[in-house]
Amino acid sequence: MVNNKILAAYEKEHPEFPKYILEELERELGAKVKDSEVSLVLEKVVEEYGRSLISPYEAIGVITAQSVGERSTQMTLNTFHFAGVAEQSVEGLPRLIEILDAKKNLSNPTMRLYMASEKNLSDEKVKIFANKIKETKLVEFATNVEIDMEEKIVKIDFDLKNLKRYDLDLESFVPLLDKKIRKSGSVDGKSLLVKGTATASMKDLIGIKELAMNTIVYGIKGVSDVSIIKEGEDYVILTQGISLKNVQNLDFIDKERVYCNDVHEMADFYGVEVARQTIIREIMEVVKSQGLSINERHVLLIADAMTYTGSVRGMTRYGIVAEKLNVLTRASFETPLKHLSKGSVINEHNILNSITENVMTNQMVYVGTGIPKVAVKARDK
Amino acid sequence: MGDVFLNDVFIGSVPNSKKFVDNFRKMRLKGEIEKVYNIYLNEQLDFIYIDGTPGRIRRPLIAVEKGVSKFTQQVQEKVVAGELSFEDLVQKGIIEYLDAMEEENAYVAFDEFDLTPSHTHLEITPLAMYGFNTGTVPFSNYDEPARLMRGQKTIKQAVGMYALNYQKRKETDRNLLVSPQKPLVETFIYELLGFDKHPAGQNLVVGIMSFEGYNMEDGLILNQSSIERGLQRSFYYKLYSSSETKYPGGLQDKIMYPGKDIKGYRAEEDYRYLEDDGIVYLGQKIATGDVLVGKVSPPRFIEEIEGFGQMINLNVDASLALKEDEKGVVSAVSVIENVDGDKEVNVLLRDHRNPIVGDKFASRHGQKGVVGATFKQSDMPFSENGIVPDAIFSPHSIPGRKTVSHVMEVLAGKVAALSGEFVDANPFDGQSEEELRAQLKSFGFNPSGTEVMFDPSTGKRMEVEIYVGSLYYLRLNHQVDNKIQARGTGPVQLLTRQPAEGRVRGGGLKLGEMEKDALISHGAAMLLKERFSADQTKAMVCTNCGYLADPYIQRYKSKCPICSSSSFETVELAYAFKLFINELRSMGINPSFETKDRFFE
After folding, report:
1. Is there a contact between B522 and A368 if contact means CB atoms under 8 Å apart?
2. Contact yes or no for A364 and B517 at CB 8 A
3. Which residues in B lie closer than 8 A to residue A367 (C-beta atoms)?
4. Which residue of B has its CA nearest to A343?
5. Deepest in the core among B90, B116, B456, B472, taking most CB within 10 A?
6. Does B517 touch chain A (CB under 8 A)?
7. How far apart are CA A153 and CA A148, in angstroms?
8. How many other CB atoms are found less than 10 A from the CB of residue B233?
9. Do A344 and B518 lie within an 8 Å CB cutoff?
10. Domain A329-369 has CATH 2.30.30
């Protein structure tokens, strides 16, 4: 709500003008500024705002495509990696394609976890926290394995002191075992026993051993590696592998700043607006890491196009192109036969209003100079 | 224990491989083992490879014993006196040929002064590290290797006198420089190759300056008056051939002066330069459309026979005529029998090519450029002595590319021109910069190589002194006359009615998808429509059923054969789209149209 007299009058007169600009203006100007000066500033702001607006029928989609496309040709030429350093894991063009196509299985899924601020943190402490996130298999605690062929028993020994250090209990391992061997598992002192069937062969027992050894007993499933970096005062744990749901149970991380680079995971967990923000952030980061720049407005358009329906859709023939209204537009992208035959079967109606079809039929394109019309009234006879 | 392989086949093992290899090499030097064999010891694996197979690349090196070159003073004197040949040196074991594998075991000194007791071989000359082509680049030790590569690449494209029997050879196209010159600044390898017997370039007086802006971005300004005196003039030869092909059934093409009654007869004047045998006059100047070889083909298919049983000539004209943009003088004609046993006529056409705007030139240092403008002598800057440069080269081409040798050649060329002696520009041991500057000074010139020059339009002295000298310039075989392409209207493709593709067919330049996008993002819809209007057609749509009308209806405007309606709308659309609709119909999809006036909605 604007209180200044002049600004309020302007708001009433021009309801289409964004309110937040007027509010910001009032905040910046303060109360002491004279009315004449306020109107002078307002005039300039309105002029500047008008200049920033896109003209009607400007082909912003094509301009965005060109802006991103030109940068991406430069990316192919310098596809160097920052080997080993987890902090700079963005990888140029392949990553950009991954984001734009909204791929499901990322080649490098990572989470960024900030530490909850009230804790008194040190490097060692964060290291312990990080270990709690990293998935640890049973094999890493085992000290000895024996296969008893006569009793048909696999016996895995543990160092109980070591387990205690990790706040672990041997009893708790049994319910974590794989379904097939869970029932036959039992604890005997410092060993875990898994019983095979009476007719089990050596091969079966080795299979049981492998299953038991690969049981994840500690940390979060799917997080194969962790690394710690420091951002100013904050400690950040970077993970290899994503599980937003399981991270929420940990009390030592700041739940408001959990971030991951998987757009779909973000959409599922936080909703589509966050997914949109993730797309923008990830694209900008890739471009920046290559020493290039794209105006953020282009990226905003891309993110909007990918998310405006409420779910994340990639820029592929299964994604946003599949939902184009016109048959010819879809057919001119990929798999033309599929679209033409399907279109003929369901009797699709194609109004020639997009650029592609008007170029195909060589009609005037509804863009730029194709819009203005001049009509001459014939003289009455 | 070292395993021994002869020509990659295991033949046995030796107890001490190092000793074995040393002995082998000693015996080879003495001539007890054939010199074609090379031996290589892989010390990691303890494998010994002896190789005598043909097809290896080997290179000669001077043998070194205990840090002393075997090519001694006495040997050198004998070689100079002509008592010893290169072959003798090889036989005596003074020069040894190593292959790529044995080179791995060798420790080769670059220079005789670098020799230590651990060296095994000595380079015959430092020049050996360059290839033949690169070795002809003067002062190449001043350059970046990447530039040398580009330099030798352009040397290979240079127009020169490649062979003296060019009139009788059968290449499709060839270029000949009219008066090639030996370079004033040359290397040892240049002479060694015999390249000076048939050079490929000319010594030009070059000024390094910006002038009128026509030499920006690697452009070159040439002196038109020099061109008229024959500067970098060349001939372009192209071979045309036509043969009497035999067809199944005993029919055969015939090379002859075509009669007027044949099918496809051209205008009479197109045949005017043919002699009675159907072949063009020798020495005749001809141009586009003129026939070189008159030829008549028999009818190919039975169906072609028409004419209601009358006796008519069914033969078809198959004459060889000049295409668009082709011209020249008939330089040689040869009638031969080709591999199929048919009569074949080869006509060699010579075209006179003066340098024009767009032709490509290069120095030997990877500095290639295209002629941007030619100025008359009166419009070129001149020096105190009245020297007018033949070419003006832009100074902006030098610092980024670091071609110091290019700058050196200008200096050396100037010295050579003044002294009347060729300058030795061998890498590493050629004439030094100080020597060249001292010589230049002794001739009364500024040792920096610069000269005071005057503006041709005002006659006033230029503010800066200009670096002028002589540079060996190569004319490259990329000439605009062979590449220029432009069209307003012209031939179209039969199927789509879109313009044909390619220069020889008189085609257009493609405005592709990305270019289309560029027009759209500029909002230039009108231009886009005009540019794509080459195949614009009118079609009629039945307003009742919506199907595209037959050509029959278009002509007579009668009723729609599908719905018997007689109201039609005429629409303008791309012929390629209409073809697309027809193809869809052939697939079993029948698109129909609704028409609406988009200007009066």
Report:
1. yes
2. no
3. 520, 523, 525
4. B589
5. B472
6. yes
7. 5
8. 18
9. no
10. no
Using CA coordinates, name the residue in chain A closest to B599.
A373
Instruction: Tell which wins on pLDDT, A173 or A265.
Output: A265
Distance CA A272, CA B499 (A): 49
**Residue of chain A whose alpha carbon sits nearest to that of B581:** A361
pLDDT, tens digit (0-9, with 9 covering 90-100), for B316-360: 889 999 988 889 999 999 999 999 889 999 999 999 999 999 999
List CB contacts (< 8 A) between A365 and chain B.
Answer: 520, 525, 528-529
Query: Which of A58, A362, A369 is opposite residue B574, by nearest beta carbon?
Result: A362
Question: How far is it, in rounded angstroms, from Cα A237 to Cα A219?
Answer: 14
Catalytic site residue B8? no
Which whole-number Å values give the CA distances from A109 to A153, A307, B99, B600, in the listed order?
Answer: 39, 21, 52, 55
Chain centre distance of CA B89: 40
| Cross-chain residue pair A66–B521, CB shorter than 8 Å | yes
What's the CATH fold of domain B534-587? DCoH-like (3.90.1800)
Instruction: Write down the catalytic residue from B3, B46, B196, B218.
Output: B218
Q: Show which of residues 81-120 on chain B sit within 8 Å of chain A, judged by CB atoms.
A: none
| Every domain of chain B and the residues it spans | 2-129, 147-166+177-233+357-475, 235-353, 534-587
Tokens of A67: 């802006």
Q: What's the longest Cα–Cα distance across chain B?
A: 111
Which of B527, B532, B598 lies nearest to residue A359, judging by beta carbons?
A: B532
How far is A242 from A247, CA to CA, in rounded Å? 9
What CATH number does the domain located at B147-166+177-233+357-475 have?
2.40.270.10
Option in A66, A368, A373 nearest B517 (CB): A66
Mean pLDDT of the B473-485 span: 92
- pLDDT, tens digit (0-9, with 9 covering 90-100), for A181-209: 777 778 887 888 888 777 878 888 888 88
What is the tens place of the pLDDT at every residue in A87-144? Answer: 455 578 888 999 999 999 888 888 888 888 766 778 888 888 888 888 888 888 888 8
- Does B524 reach chain A within 8 Å, measured CB to CB? yes
Q: How far does B44 lie from chain A, in Å, by closest CA?
A: 31
Give the model confidence (pLDDT) of A44-79 as tens digits.
Answer: 999 999 888 888 889 999 999 999 999 988 886 555
Collapsed DSSP state (helix, strand, coil) of residue B220: strand
- Contact flag A363-B533 (C-beta cutoff 8 Å): no
Residues of B in contact with A295 (CB under 8 A): none
Q: Within 10 Å of residue B383's Cβ, how many Cβ atoms? A: 17
Of A360, A367, A373, the CB nearest to B525: A367
Helical pair A19-29 and A35-52, crossing angle rounded to 10 deg: 140
CATH for the B235-353 domain, from 3.30.43.10, 2.40.50.150, 1.20.1260.10, 1.10.4160.10: 2.40.50.150
Q: Is B585 on the interface with A (CB under 8 A)?
A: no
Of B466, B439, B471, B472, the closest CA to residue B385 belongs to B466
Domain-by-domain residue ranges, chain A? 5-52, 59-85+92-104+261-323, 136-218, 329-369
According to the model, what pLDDT value does residue A87 have?
46
Residues of B in Cβ contact (< 8 Å) with A66: 517-518, 521
User: How long is chain B?
Assistant: 601
Angle between helices B513-521 and A60-77 (to 10 degrees): 130
C-alpha distances out from residue A162 to A133, A169, A170, Å: 18, 10, 11
- Look at the alpha carbons of B466, B468, B474, B480 in this order and tell me if their dihedral is positive or negative: positive
Domain A59-85+92-104+261-323: assigned CATH number:
1.10.1790
Q: What is the mean pLDDT of residues B447-469?
A: 94
pTM comes to 0.74
Q: Is B164 on the interface with A (CB under 8 A)?
A: no
Is this complex's ipTM strictly greater than 0.85? Answer: no
